[in-house]
Amino acid sequence: MAHFKNGVLGGMVFSLTYTLTLNELFKTIVLAITGAIVSFLVSFYLKKMFKNK
Length: 53
Fold this sequence. Notes:
mainly alpha
């Protein structure tokens, strides 16, 4: 079973190397970082806003 999982994971990673360009990878990383920062800030301010009441 472990060989099957490794084969599926390896095949997926190998196929992504041909479909993803460097520009798309960079855009994905920037969007992920932006989303994480926005999510953190919204949750931080919501906790702060409801803690004071």
